[in-house]
Amino acid sequence: MIVMKRIKSLSTLLVLIVTLGFISCDTEPVDPVFLDYEPEVEEPASFQVDFSEQTYQATTTTVVMENGITTIAAVRASDGAVFTLVVPGTTAGTYSASVIAYAPGISGNQYTNMDGTNISGAVTFTAVNTTNNTISGTFSFTGYWSDASENLPSVEFTNGIFINLPFTSDTDPNPNPGNSSFSVDIDDETYIADNYAGTIGNGLISIGGTRGTSGEYVALVINATTVGTYSNEDLFFGYSSDGDEDNVYSNIDFGGGENDAQLTITQIDEANQTISGTFSFTGYLGGNSKSFTNGQFTNIPYTTGQGTDESEFMATVDGVAVDYIDDLLVGTVNNQVTIAGVGADHEINLFIGTLGVGVYSIPGDNFSAPTASYTDDNDVEYNAVSGTLTITEKAGGWVSGTFEYTVQDEAGNNVHTVTNGTFNVEY
């Protein structure tokens, strides 16, 4: 059995590989200038998909285009169920190398479109509006449960559609090219990346480099956010010569063998947001292997995500203090903010909506924002019947404040209390 304590499932690691694995051209804006032109009125943002004789509809989404990759996260506030789509492209088209995952609850497991050797399904971008910064498209896939020991059947996800989801994007994948580099010897041949990027957040460091136009990449994922030396069980490496999802060498030997992977983070320059280090590993693909030695990454620019020192989401739940920073979800649709934190045996959810600085009762009038809920480890959800939300600051894409609330069961009994809640998150 392969032990990977650093991330909840192999699929999560592979999502990060694909995220770093492709660098493509920036989206070119379309200039619709015509006589008597009247702009179309866009439909409201939405995200839904059919599976198991039900239709999932997201309440919040977050879409980010960075380094030629589009990442879509869709959250349903009622139960915290999350879809994640990582697509190797930013323009209209069909992408069969996309990675898609569905996490139905708080167990940490999920359905993914990877069964260990293949990727099913595809994502199609039908429209990318670079004037309004919205994206629309469709998707479908076969989902495989990430815990193979539970022997759950696969699930078909069909009729997936997302309409006019707002996105944010970068402008320069290599903002510091003059003194940055990424290289490694692959079977004694030196690989030097043309493009590179990194992220730090959610308890992970991700670094990737690409070369040429064929999709060749090397990706590194570390279960850490600080300087130090890390061994195989805290690492995941991936290499593909052509970007093909069926042609990825990794440091995980599916034959059950051990690995000598090692990585050292030598510097994290927070002032300039760059990261440096060294690495080596043996990569496996089927019955073949490759040696990756003398790996070095120097002054690689990185972006930060949830789980950095700037973000915060904590509360005292039934008398026990809980820090949710390593399992934090923040979603927005039309500037409506939802924050979800996953604990060891529960999840709390806070829907802020579009509220600004002020003090508010939970729930709002007619159960409008703000609302809150508690979901136990049996996926039973309890809605807040009383409480207070205080927003102390909301500016520059960040919101911070405090909260407390009580939830009741159907009989009207107080069953859980959430107190001393604090948050400071980017949305």
UniProtKB/TrEMBL annotation:
InterPro entries: DUF6252 (IPR046219). Pfam families: DUF6252. Keywords: Signal. Residues 1-24 form the signal peptide. PROSITE patterns: PROKAR_LIPOPROTEIN (PS51257). This is Uncharacterized protein. It comes from Flavobacterium arcticum.
